[in-house]
Amino acid sequence: MANDNINIVDEPEIIYIPDDEGNEEEFEVIMKFEVDGSDAKYMMVVPMDSEDEDTDEVYAFRYEEDEDGDDIKLYMIDNDEEWAIVEETFNTLVAELDGGE
Question: Cα-flanking dihedrals φ and ψ of residue 5, to 5°?
């Protein structure tokens, strides 16, 4: 189910996402990927200022880029079917990376 179009970020890519109050929070992009049979692109991020370092808090977003790749629009994944596909793909990719080391 995993696509060959995976981007594991070597150098940290930092993005800023506004919270409910409009304050920008800093996140590190840990993985970008596409799902087979779909044109949708997904991004997995972790908060940079996590107060609890033992928590493995990972957030998933669907995203679109402009032609230059300079402007990114993030979309929440609120469809259960889409979420299940993204979660399965992410877990498969992580398992492949863990097995490859």
Answer: -85, 80
